[in-house]
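the two lines:
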Amino acid sequence: MLESARILSRCDELALCSELPGGLTRVFLSPEQRAASELILGWMREARMSARVDAIGNVVGRYEGDRPGLPCLMLGSHLDTVRDAGRYDGMLGVVTAIECVHALAAAGKRLPFAIEVVGFGDEEGVRFGATLLGSRAIAGTFDAATLVAKDRDGVTLAEAMRSYGLEPERIGEAARRKDEVLAYAELHIEQGPVLEAEGLPVGVVTAINGFSRRRVTLKGEAGHSGTVPMGLRRDALTAAAECVLAVESVARSEPELVGTVGRIEASPGAINVIPGEVRFTLDVRAPHDSLRESALAQMLSRFESICAPRRVAVSVEVLQDHGVSVCADWLMAQMDRAVAAEGLRVRRLPSGAGHDGMAMHALTDIAMLFVRCKGGISHNPAESITEEDAAVGARVFARFIADFVPQKP
Amino acid sequence: MLESARILSRCDELALCSELPGGLTRVFLSPEQRAASELILGWMREARMSARVDAIGNVVGRYEGDRPGLPCLMLGSHLDTVRDAGRYDGMLGVVTAIECVHALAAAGKRLPFAIEVVGFGDEEGVRFGATLLGSRAIAGTFDAATLVAKDRDGVTLAEAMRSYGLEPERIGEAARRKDEVLAYAELHIEQGPVLEAEGLPVGVVTAINGFSRRRVTLKGEAGHSGTVPMGLRRDALTAAAECVLAVESVARSEPELVGTVGRIEASPGAINVIPGEVRFTLDVRAPHDSLRESALAQMLSRFESICAPRRVAVSVEVLQDHGVSVCADWLMAQMDRAVAAEGLRVRRLPSGAGHDGMAMHALTDIAMLFVRCKGGISHNPAESITEEDAAVGARVFARFIADFVPQKP
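prediction for all of em together
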């Protein structure tokens, strides 16, 4: 029996492991993480899993299949949080996975594969500025250079590991072999408004979107707002306004594409001066790299054709590019069936936010199930889900696990 | 003897009183204003004027007439600048007026009226967002509500005055009586392209265009740039971009109309967050009040129709409205004669920029003489005039002063 009330009460209990009084902040390798890990280890053992902390501080529980030593279906999410976080981002996935195993164990069921549940120690990257440290270690893509990254108190990752009782030189032991893992599946709150808008409790993730980030500078000519006739102006802000709308228009041309100008500054920035220079940021995301790349190219080309007749110069600085992490078709098909079997409409949607699957993708095929959250709000204490949605999510996830068929090699 | 080289070198010297290294920014009640004021006080005294800083921080020099205590012809311009300014806007008028008095004093001449030269502390309104503070104080129209206006560091005008050594409660002492002032005349660079296009060094101003200024706030909803689909966004910046283009489009509909968005800020202002709020300024000017008023109404109505379908709320704060300030016929006639006496064609033209005369108009009749500037460029470090034009301007202005006949009461 899946107990949704227990899922929520465990999220509440984890939320008390916080360095922020009255709120939730829990960073990698902190005393709060140790406290949260102790709770998770206990719940895993209660669900008849063998449970341990691995070489980088992830909590790993294992429920054997119908004979010992079988390759596993790996489930998980992260236990660290952003600062002043909500209580479901990450934790809901770990607690729900344990609940699913708990139900199997209570029914005395063993499956033709093992199940492992991982509570990743670091996904958000708050403490050391590098994200996905827990899942990278398991995927075998941990970059040793990160060991010298410092937190805001000047403590390196290596030092923090030692204080936590871990040995940085043994970090490679956290890495798993490809033949040990059949697939990775994660349940997570959506952190966006799509499911709520469509009245659906869950959705099947198609991909963790890739993203491109640019800084754009437009240079025109400053001038007096009262004396320069409209026809003689080289206004960098009216040019930027057209660019912002071009980003929106290109991004609207494909339902799964998003494009955002989040920062803008106009110089000199006085009420009576025509802006001579404008700088703005661009963030473009899509579930297909080709879509993102062609959208970005279109946007940049639109910037040029907007600015040329305005005699405004465009320059573009590359900040970041990250390719898409696609969920596996065969896993999505099985997740779809689990959703449909609960009598729900199957809604596939990409994930705009990053997740541990981005790292796990290097080790094995990945799948994700999104659970509706209130107002799409996340990374915020106002993050909220209903017990009913937690229950639906757990039922779908449990069915996906029970009916899981590994891909033919 | 008028020394045009000294006029230019003094403008250069004032340009060094700047908070912007390698450029010119000097705002109201700043240490740079104090440094500029010290220079002006010295030059005034050198021209045998009594000189003082008045209750709001204007520099005021007085050259008595053929007997002490006569009403004055008031001359002046402003000493503050926009950000990253040119060195003639304002300063040329103050320095030329001092030069004219210097020549009178050197020749031992006294006129049948006193002359006062004012270097206004604030005309541009950069620091507190309210313009003409210096001339309003002298005209007796200073609005005490402005004392609580804050600069971008949260310092109020009242606090800034106290730090500067002034007492806000005594601001009324800066106001002059109508019977003390016969007229106000100002020499200023044109800041526009008309005189250059016609090959004329100077022109006689007919009126200062009216203007309307607004602060517009758009409220949408912030969200994760990766998770909120385009169709569900309430992006305040894309709405603002459409508004900026609407301002441009309405302003382009009439040749004498101009409209400018000079400042814009998007919040929270992170590369990965959809802007939930945008604030921008609006500046609309025209030579006829009815044209300006109808253009402004059109713009604000376009803002509403742009923002409504985007589910973005618009609020508009009135910052300033100022009708057209007409120059007095009797003063223009005397200025015309001074121009013609120098062998120049008389060209009358309106001013697209605002000037201290707009405030002085409440106290006395006003006149202005424009001096050609290169390319019509102003509010820009590229602002430039020739020494020859500075000399012509000074000669015409000196002649206007020497031949000035007060209006019969």
